[in-house]
Amino acid sequence: MTKPSVRTATGLVVCAAAWVLAAIMLGAVGMLRPVPSWLLWPAAAGGIGTAIAACRVAAAAGTGPVRVLWRRFSISCSLLLAGIGTQVVDQVVLGADLMPMSPVTAALLAAAAGYAMLAVFRLPTTRRTWRAALANFLDVAIVGVAAAVVLTHFLWRTTHDDAGSPISTLLVSVIVVASSTIVMVLKVGVTGAGPVLAPALWAVAPIGLLGPAGWLLWPTLERWSHLSGTVITVPIAGFLFTLAAWIQTRTLTSGPRTATRRISLVPYIAVAVVVVMLIAVTLRTGFLPPRLAGGSVALTVLVMIRQLVALLDNAVLLDRLEDQAQHDDLTGLPNRRLFTATLSARTAPATVAVCDLDGFAALNDQLGDDTGDVLLRAAAQRVSAVAGDAVVVARLLGDEFGILMPGIDAGLANTLVDAFRVPLRVDDRDLLVTVTSGVATGAGDAVPDLLRRAEVALQAAKYTGTDRAREHSGALDATAQHHAELAAALRGGLRRGEFRLLYQPIVELPSGAVTGVEALIRWQPDDQPVISPAEFIPVAEHSGLIIDLGAWILDTACADAAVWQLRYGAAGPRVNINVSARQLLDPDLPGMVAGALSRHGLAPDRITIEITETAVFAGGAAMETVRELRELGVGLALDDFGTGHSSLTLLRTCPVTTLKVDKSFIDDLNGTAEQEAIASSLSTIASTLGLRAVAEGVETQDQADRLYALGYRYAQGYHFARPIPAEGIDALLNAPMLTA
After folding, report:
1. What tens digit of pLDDT does each residue of 417-451 get?
2. Which are the contacts of 35, defined by CB distance < 8 A and separation ≥ 6?
3. For the chain, which terminus, N or C, has the lower number of CB atoms within 10 Å?
4. How far apart are CA 61 and CA 12, in angstroms?
């Protein structure tokens, strides 16, 4: 299967075409002047010899059934060449007439055709269903009956009109060759020979028609001693064999095309041929002979049965396609189309719940698509088990599932959330995957709208976190509309420059000296009140605008940090910049940070990226982004530590430099030892691991003093300063010490 094989096959095609051209030219010369009767036989022998070589090239390039087929074709061509040799001997040595051919020649030609027919017949075919096998049998029967009608009519006319004539000797060979064509056509066009063999076999199939064509030409050619149907058609047969071998070699080298045509035209062509013949016979004789009438009736019955089978197959196929169009391929559950159609048809009281898997995208990245598919199937089984009977469970989107339950059950969303608190069995491991769910109930005209309402409730639940459930209420529709409007206003506000940064100092204990600041965004729309970050940040997260907004925060904070670096040098404050979970999934974030540092000439250690435990707890792409950020030289802080998926393992796997202890632990200071235990432990852990511990939410001097006693050296809160513009930070830096 090499390029030299293709070049060799191409050269042989050119050679075979040259033999055909030579035969045509010599035949034309012989019509104009006397020539020996054997003049065209060398060209015929040359064409078949070329075909033998081409068949051997194709056999060498192929393997398995392909190699066997082309070896057998080369043997068939060798038998044909032997037949040509005996004909030449009869004419040149024995001086016999061009017609009739000797029994030896006829036997060799018949053997060549029969062996080629056997080679094609023994090709393997694909396994079929019983319906496909029945259709295939009927197609073969149609082609076989059509061929029998044509050949028997041809045979009857020959034996009736030319009984006792020399041409009867050739008739047997013609019938055998025509039969071989029928077998090849059946194999390629009806039963199929596979995409590797089919293109070449279609080129070989017309060879069987050359015999009948030569016989039809014989009455016209008999006036010239050097011409006969055989000597004219043999070079063409050699060319077709060579062409087929070339196609086979190229197919093996470049790879077969995928077969897409599923309907065989061969039976229709066979029926068309018979119809044309019947019309011609009727017009010529004025009536239809009984033998042809019987054949046409048999053919009509077979065609009717075949069409009935086709209609039944089409009905089954349509049902299957309809089923596939309404079900999910991965889980086998109904899809969104069937779910909404079923919902639209209901008016009785119903409950619709939707849920999706928390953090599935990160899990899929971490575990791989195959394991992700297994996880989705396991989740589908869990949802179905929760739903029970008499419900419709569907896979609505990637990791989102829906339940349509008759009756009113507002607690269905909580039931789903509780069900997923038990780990899922995925392959050989248990995975704890939580879900967030929304539910809506209603009756009458409200039922078709329950899916939308449940999804609104799901989105509302997501705004507040994960592993949560939410029931739809009228207020949520207004909230969803407000969020959509807020998202549009966010984009416009960013374009109009309505955002600004404030900075809250991070101080050193006990002196109160400013060592860092946390950048906090504020939105002041024109002629409107200030919009709280607690309101617009979740909208930015869910709408994807957090990427653009985060880029603006990063660039602005780095610009201010560069000014402080220039003014105060190493004494300038580090700037903490908050990065959301959505931003950590953006692979461009490390490059964005590196670009901002370079653009403003800022040293990497002058900024710290603040992330949440939840954002990196599952690992995956978010953790990879965190590692890339740390490699840039910037600091990394775990914000609100202790309130999310807190794990000491996370401190080992995530390359953080700072722990920011949540305000909820600071509020318990100056109480009992039990209340201070967590704050004290976190300080010890941070010190042991070589991390900076920053206490958040410090509001009193007593809290500051107690934190210092517990080992904290950095703090942040209203006791020291509220968030202020960059100019206010300069004033604090120039003051000798912060005061309460």
Report:
1. 999 988 888 888 888 889 999 999 888 878 888 99
2. 26, 29, 226
3. C
4. 15
